[in-house]
Specification:
125 residues, 4-stranded antiparallel beta sheet, mainly beta, 7-stranded mixed beta sheet, 11 strands
């Protein structure tokens, strides 16, 4: 059974930082593209960042470029999203997801078949 569990969310002031973790069980992440997505109330789920199975290719949504960094530690079966200079508009539930394939195009939610339950990130003063 493939399972993904997000952690690291919480309440942070604007300009602060958080590091989200996505831990896998039941399978190894070595062969999977991993994506981070987020969904705010009343809005569609959007892609934040994706990383190839090797970690050599990464993609970012324009609004987070230069502020967020995705990385993976396959030995720990974990993918991370380092979020710096957080803004109130970053407030959302953040999900990690996995699919077995290559990362060629943009992060598309429909490409991912396995999802975690999400972790809440709230950016507020």
């Amino acid at each position: 059974q493939l399972q993904l569990v997000e952690s690291g969310g919480g309440l942070v002031q604007p300009g602060g930082s958080l590091r989200l973790s996505c831990a896998a069980s039941g399978f190894r992440l070595d062969y999977y593209v991993i994506g981070w997505f987020r969904q705010a109330p009343g809005k569609e789920r959007e892609g934040v960042s994706c990383i190839s199975s090797s970690g050599e290719t990464t993609k970012y949504e324009d609004s987070v470029k230069g502020r967020f960094t995705i990385s993976r530690d396959n030995a720990k079966n974990t993918v991370y999203l380092q979020m710096n200079s957080l803004k109130p508009e970053d407030t959302a539930v953040y999900y990690c997801a996995a699919h077995r394939g290559y990362l060629f195009g943009p992060c598309r939610a429909d490409d991912f078949g396995s999802w975690g339950q999400g972790t809440q990130v709230t950016v507020s003063s």
